[in-house]
Structures
1.
Amino acid sequence: MEQLTIKTSTHDYPVVIDQGLRFKLKSFLNKDYPSIYIITDSNVAPLYLDDVYNALKANYHVSYSIVPAGEESKSSRVYFDLMTQLIEAGVDRDGLVIALGGGMIGDLAGFVAASYLRGIDYIQMPTTILAHDSSVGGKVAINHPLGKNLIGAFYPPVAVLYDVETLQTIPFQEIRSGYAEIAKHSMIHTPPFWEQIKPVTLDESLSDATLIRDLIHGINVKAAIVERDEKEANIRQFLNFGHTLGHAIESELGYGKMTHGEAVAIGMLFAMELSEQYFSVTLPIEAFHNWLKRNDYPLTLPRLSVNQLMTRMKRDKKTKNQTIKMVLLKTLGEPVIIDMEDRSLRQQLEAFLEKMVIR
Ligand SMILES: NC(=O)c1ccc[n+]([C@@H]2O[C@H](COP(=O)([O-])OP(=O)(O)OC[C@H]3O[C@@H](n4cnc5c(N)ncnc54)[C@H](O)[C@@H]3O)[C@@H](O)[C@H]2O)c1
Ligand SMILES: O=C(O)C(=O)C[C@@H](O)[C@H](O)[C@H](O)COP(=O)(O)O
Ligand SMILES: [Zn+2]
């Protein structure tokens, strides 16, 4: 078992990483909750809902909702339906929400918990690799058709219980998606650990030991950053490496058409190219590109409108005074936030997308 504690402005919470945690939930509940409400999705429910429900039902009043799997459920409609279900179930201010699933569920259920009755406790139970990132740090949100995560809060959970046994059932595309955020952590951290990720192949040969090593490394990077800058006043923006374009691609294509990690991977490639030009440095772009290719990441895009992408990037939460900010790398492990000038960003984006279309 691995455990760390995250300090926030309101409380500290544990991140526990172990096999089979879903069977031992009771021992991690530090309050006598009158009701527990599990929120999960239609892929995770048949696999793990019973285990979680059965681990609690003898001691607590437990209810649940199952939302359709997929990014489209991180929506105002599903959010509102969940609110209705919690009200009808009579969950009060002493209730607990359990977010059982990947980052979609963590963000959605976390935002439900943050806003229901002005905020009740919630536990993150991540079940994807990507959720090593989303379950830590307290960013919760739903999407708006105009942009990703535009409606949300900083609202830390009371615990993150990462039962890594659940990762055995995730499909390959989701292994890829999650490893993109691990690669992100490997490149923004000092010292960088990209050299550790570079040889990893995301197929049957990926061992549990490698996966757990990389997950723990990623979680430690994330934890260290969010502890120092919980509300993203400064260095937390580094965690947005690859996201300025990645989020624009996700929303422009339509939520769920490309996974979050796949879109962020493309965004990282673009940010690396911009970094090389901006700082006249050499980054391991070719090695990263080869890694993405070897692991079957999508490296082509349909022809997208550069105007639309620019408009979407302007709606990014880092934007101030209409100036798009990008996380660039001065060198591997040394991220910086740069105000981008529209004209040159547009030109570089056009050139980048042209390569993505024909590659
Ligand atoms: N809050 C944050 O800090 C943060 C960080 C990174 C990403 N995110 C958000 O996270 C979301 C992406 O998360 P995700 O990649 O986990 O997507 P997801 O939650 O949609 O899960 C991906 C797919 O895997 C399925 N699944 C989940 N766990 C499974 C399991 N154990 N076995 C089999 N199938 C399983 C899901 O049903 C879904 O189909 C995006 O909305 C992104 O914006 C948030
Ligand atoms: O925790 C953060 O901060 C991050 O930026 C982590 C990202 O991987 C994640 O996708 C996050 O949801 C993006 O945040 P946003 O503020 O750009 O919506
Ligand atoms: Zn992300």
Note: The chain has two domains: 2-169, 172-358.
2.
Amino acid sequence: MSADDDKKAAARRALEWVKPGMRLGLGTGSTAEKFVAALGDKVAQGLDVVCVPTSERTAAQAAALSIPLTTLEDTPQLDLTVDGADEVDGALRLIKGGGGALLREKIVAAASTSMLVIADGSKLVDRLGKFPLPVEVVPFGLGATRILVGRALSDCGIDGAPVILRTDTEGAPFVTDGGHYILDCACEAIPDAEALADALVAIPGVVEHGLFLGLCDTVVIGAGGETRVLTA
Ligand SMILES: O=C[C@H](O)[C@H](O)[C@H](O)COP(=O)(O)O
């Protein structure tokens, strides 16, 4: 069984949480993409749901599958968001944003009664931080914001972590759907995720960060052809 099979198994299992009439948030990334594909099959069979996508990429996929879409302006409260993650720890705290969609993902998750994460087994960690933490920042003042992000890391016991501007395949700064840049922080380990989250949001140029704390209540892990469910 490949990681791709495990992602697919978790994505299919997540359909068990989807009920007719639900307002859903649709995540972004290679795992969420498999859920959207599986949901598209159900919609084609008559399932009645309405969905808010967390990225232009997911919006395009869902539209191509004729999944009914809405916005948080028209539908400000959602029942369930299904999304992937870059890391999940034992307390169901997450690092997200590897695909650059963390801001919309967090807004959509926060608007949802429940957040279900789907992932292959490699995403489960004892301690958050091996995956570089994405921090979304406004382009104005980038140099100054980068120094303050580095200082916030040091203040939280993460010394000397490289804070790297994410670039696209052409070497230009990667631009998010919201028109922002991303700083990837190579923490290696995050001793106190809550303290770091507080320190990062206090920086004026920081729009959002990839620590999702207290948002996810259920995780479906695909591993070796099986799925298992973790709950908060
Ligand atoms: O910005 C991207 C998202 O947070 C993704 O959900 C996350 O990076 C996991 O992606 P994947 O399922 O491709 O590993």
Note: Helices lie at 3-14, 30-44, 56-64, 102-110, 142-155, 193-201.
3.
Amino acid sequence: MKKTYDLNVLKRTSIITPDQLREEFPMTEKATRTVLDSRQEIKAILDGKDQRLLIITGPCSIISHRQAVRYGELLAELQEKVKPTIKLVMRVYFEKPRTNVGFKGLISDPHIDKQTFDIDEGLRKARKILMDLNEMGVACGTEILSQTAAERLSGLIAWACIGARTTESQNHREWASAFSMPVGFKNGTDGNLGTAINALLAASTPQVFIGNDPFGVTSRVFSSGNKYCHIVLRGGKRPNYDPVSISEACEMLANHPSLLQSVIVDCSHKNSGKDYRKQGEVFNHVLIQRIGHTNGIHIKPNKAICGMMLESNIEAGKQAFVYGETRKEDLNPFISITDACIGWDETEEIILTAHRQLK
Ligand SMILES: O=C[C@H](O)[C@H](O)COP(=O)(O)O
Ligand SMILES: C=C(OP(=O)(O)O)C(=O)O
């Protein structure tokens, strides 16, 4: 009989199970405390019980341990300075959703060579980076693109994001309903907010779906629903960080009183027109809306704005990189190879200025 399945599968290899990976990199007391305390703080901010601003900042993609730990050190130092007004979460993004094709992140291809795709090594690198950051007291945020990464790393994540390309995916909504951390859903790539609101409704509801147990065995998973799902505005056909767009989002949320009435604004992506140099301007615009005044002019503060996101790296911009051609050894680990980012100096200035204004 002719084979009817796997006609386009070239090869399959097994990967490390969640249990094996956790055994190789077991939780420590300090890391557990960082994760649990940070989640509590983020939840309190989303609930409006903690008036501080949440800022999720960090590289578009993590490309090396050195880069992640250096950024983490800088962030930890800054967190101490702005503690009374701002909670910082580092973007520790290992999975990149592509518009069509390209480097899909360190888990998919840790050697960045478009050849080896050593996913076991990628998962090990990711878990080690997350362990080290949590040990340093740095709260980690990441985009969850695959169930595989979620099952192996979620215990080290304080805040998760479902990206614009997957907010409409039923699977991602199901996983979010089971996650232990607060989850932000981006609006759709075209700017559609309804997609994100539907995602919040689905993810806050108990679900039954197919997942894996810690030993990698396919299982039914029964979730309780996640009450800490919220919206992240990232722009679409046009930016959506202006007062009218944010009010529109708040009105849509108000139609569903069971949902968190809080909004995070991503200052990058389509809100900056993908021009990293505009992120600071977007940030200031949103900060004024949140605080309610600028240079003596008073406007009504919008307390629903509880957080902002920045794509920031140690050095600004983006380096020349052709996937499959540029060798990893030739890359500068401190400059982005995916979206261009603001550099550390500008990041620090933006956050310190916000701290002074929030005080
Ligand atoms: O933040 C990252 C990118 O915007 C996202 O992964 C899409 O990238 P691409 O359009 O270059 O594929
Ligand atoms: C891919 C990202 O964002 P978006 O889903 O908004 O495109 C990201 O934040 O890295």
Note: The domain at 18-358 is CATH 3.20.20.70 (TIM Barrel).
4.
Amino acid sequence: MEEKSQDTLPEKYEIVTDHELNPPPSSDLELRKGGKTITGSQEILLDQQRGLPLLKKIDAMSTTLQNLKKERMILSDVVKGISAESLLGSDVLSSLQILGTEHETLKKKYLEESSERKRLYNEVIELKGNIRVFCRCRPLNQDEIASGSSSVVEFDPSQETELQIICSDSSRKQFKFDHIFGPKDNQEAVFAQTSPVVTSVLDGYNVCIFAYGQTGTGKTFTMEGTPENRGVNYRTLEELFRISKERCSTMKYELFVSMLEVYNEKIRDLLVENPNQPPKKLEVKQAAEGTQEVPGLVEARVYSTDEVWELLKTGSCARSVGSTNANELSSRSHCLLRITVKGENLINGQRTRSHLWLVDLAGSERLGRIEVEGERLKESQFINKSLSALGDVISALASKTAHIPYRNSKLTHLLQSSLGRDCKTLMFVQISPSAADLGETICSLNFASRVRGIEHGPARKQGDPTELFKYKQMAEKLKQDEKETKKLQDSLQSLQLRFAAREHLCRNLQEKVRDLENQLAEERKARLQQETKAAAPFTKSSVLASQQLGQKAATQKKPPLGPSKPRVPLRGITNLLPPPAPLRKTGITTFASISTEDRENLSKKTTATSTRTLMMPRRRVSIAVRPPETTTTQVEKPKRRISIATLRPESHLNPMMTPLNRSKNVGDMGRRSFAKDARMVRRVSRIFSPLPGLRNAAAEATPVVSKSKFLGSPPTQTSSWKPKHPTVVALQKRHFIWSPLKLRGLKNDRRSLQPS
Ligand SMILES: Nc1ncnc2c1ncn2[C@@H]1O[C@H](COP(=O)(O)OP(=O)(O)OP(=O)(O)O)[C@@H](O)[C@H]1O
């Protein structure tokens, strides 16, 4: 120890003296003067040599110690002052940063690869079949060996999936399964094949593993095992813990364990804290998310394998067992271990909740096989009933029927969400090698073969049901909203279409109105011209009068309608006609019956009243004149409605006399008229037209009847045509006098229309 301090101390002193931070004591300086560096310990030695008293030595040592302390402080300050950059350099730091980024990228890639591996792994299992059947044959037990029973099961070591059963008639029956375990295969070998299915629960798949077979064939041994040979249940949980630890950087798992039994179609919780208290009545209920739950069932959170083993032992002890002649401690119930795995992906936050059911079924032997009575018989009946329900479910799944009878038994109802199309199923068919059990063995193998025949679709990952439920509700709301939106869109579209159609109709109607107005204006203009022309050949006075009339007409006539004003869009189209104008007195006169004096009076009267008449809007006046033959033909065909008056004494017999005309004529009798006898006046009005045949004939016979836009084009006059109808003949014989209606311009000067 002494030597070691001698080696190290000189260096420290060197540093101190170099930095000149703490000058050494005077004794040191003196010693250095001699050209030698002397340490504290050497000094002590010197003092000893000099024979200094002990106190002096202690003083010296404490001084040295203080110096050393100061030194340490200085050094620590120096160390603190050294930064990473000054120590490593910027190049090293930048390369460290690059390496860090590379590390992150590699980590990401690793995650991607691991998820891909998981996917492929799952695919491999799916290809192998989501329902798999393993056969396990136990060794001959002591009793069987003692009784000299031989094995009827033959295994071919090269064929891991085939076995042969030697029947009583020495024939062989071959069975094929996904894997066959012989009497020599231990628990590890069994679990090695089982683990891939088991670990699927961590990936979010529902899994169901069950052991089926007659009593005493090793179902409990395979599932539960013994403390020395632990079975699938314990190993499964062990494996789940191992993998969850392995994945802790990316996944967070929570494991829960429930243990129950179905005894005589009743569910019993095997994990109740106080087994002495009366059992709770447990029922299978369908949760809102569609999964099967058992409300009130104990769900223990497990954190370690030790805990699990204790738990399994507790549950196993609470199980109903009884003694049968086939098994000393025969399971009289179906024992179900449920492992619930809640997973959360720490990278993307995805959550899963899946179940793994590990089922140790009660013995499948037929009733006659074991001698039971009383309570045992009842148990056996329930066991057989539920096993047959399981068989029905499997058959329904195999035949892909729409209805799977899960609810026929408690067992199948419990397993509903883990025994079906979206899940992974593994069945252990347990058989006995003994010849004495041959019949039961063949039965079990046949059942297992049926199960193996089920073609499952790909298993589906199970999300967290509460989250799934939430998403389902959201999806439904979204669907409804979409429907509503679609409805609204449809109605909007139809409204738009209707609106467009209306608009189109309005536009068409407006155009029509404009056309009609234009047409009307033109017709008015033309009519005015025609009337002026028609009045020209009459007397000089009439010419003068017509000039005056023209002037007046120019000043008073209604101007032609201008372009239509912009109209308010039509709200609706109605077929209603405008309210009819009140009936006006119609003056019908015939010049034939008027004397010269009367005519003069008439002229005066007409002139006197013309102004008033003209001012009256739309006053309808029919004037009968007898123009010369030539004049009649020269008159251009008016386009408006006309009234024609003829001299006919027997007007009441005229078929063309309309009721209106007749009444008008009758009404006019008492009134002042140009005609001496109103009955002599026959007015042919186009308002009440005669029969079409007659009308055409009359039209042809009447050259003054011009085209009306309401009645079609007038027929052309032909000299060769000879009318046959008496009315037409009468009309033709008599002079037709054209009398335009609404001839307001001319009304002022009716004299101009008088025959010369
Ligand atoms: N593969 C095996 N290797 C060694 N011993 C086994 C094997 N299988 C079963 N045994 C033994 O056979 C006996 C009966 O097994 P077990 O109780 O598991 O049968 P079981 O099918 O569960 O019967 P039960 O339906 O009546 O409950 C047990 O003592 C068990 O240890």
Note: Residues 665 and 678 are 6 Å apart (CA to CA).
